[in-house]
Specification:
Blueprint (H helix, E strand, L loop, with lengths): L12 E5 L3 E2 L7 E3 L3 E5 L7 E9 L9 E4 L4 E3 L9 E11 L11 E5 L7 E8 L4 E6 L8 E6 L5 E7 L3 E7 L9 E3 L3 E9 L4
Parallel strand pairs: 3-9, 10-16
Antiparallel strand pairs: 1-4, 2-3, 4-7, 5-6, 5-8, 8-9, 10-12, 11-13, 13-15, 14-16
Length: 201
């Protein structure tokens, strides 16, 4: 595979934006308010394996790339796993069967402004004179004393409590929950599970 030199033409590299592009911002490049498509002209070398897409907040400073196998010549912007709004620069290279990588292309600037949903962080504490265990569905919380877990946006988290030996679960406090059944949480919350020692009869 031939590696490009600085005087040779790089990829024809461009962004195809599906929806809602605004030009009212001072940032560099298109303002992207929905997912977009990244496309490039195919490399024609016989030993081509694929492409490496770089997305960073500063031009010319690139970290770990996203690999795209040939013959694919496009991908969604969301495949780059960018989770924070802000200024970004995308560049691309090609690599061959022996791992040789071409020079990285010029960078394409864009400003990401998506309506990113906040994650749901559920924290659980235990109180009372007894002991027990709290678990969650989806999985993530398996409580000893105090625990928490970050769930994907808009996740509904169901908490279940199970009393330990010689203990009884007496109910939930906080998070909009009460009673001794399951506790359903749809937003960031701290919930307390109360366990007391079972009284002898």
């Amino acid at each position: 595979m031939k590696l490009w030199r600085s005087h040779q033409l790089y990829f024809f590299f461009f962004l195809i934006v599906f929806l809602n592009v605004s030009s009212s911002f001072a940032q560099q490049g298109l303002v992207i308010t929905a997912d977009c498509q990244i496309a490039w002209e195919a490399n024609t070398e016989d030993d081509l394996v694929g492409y490496r897409l770089y997305a960073e907040t500063s031009p010319g400073i690139y970290g770990v790339p996203t690999s795209i196998l040939a013959p694919t010549t496009s991908t969604k912007c969301s495949s780059l796993n960018i989770k924070t709004n802000g200024q970004y620069y995308i560049a691309i290279s090609a690599y061959d069967t022996t791992g040789n990588e071409s020079l990285i292309s010029y960078s394409v600037p864009f400003y990401l402004q998506l309506p990113i949903d906040p994650t749901v962080i559920v924290s659980v504490a235990k109180s009372g004179t007894g002991n027990g265990k709290v678990t969650s569905s989806p999985a993530g919380i398996t409580c000893g004393a105090v625990c928490s877990h970050e769930f994907s946006p808009s996740t509904t988290v169901t908490l279940s409590a199970r009393a330990g030996t010689r203990s009884v679960f007496t109910g939930w406090v906080g998070g909009g929950c009460s009673g001794t059944g399951t506790c359903t949480v749809t937003a960031t919350n701290l919930v307390t599970a109360v366990f007391d020692v079972r009284r002898r009869r």
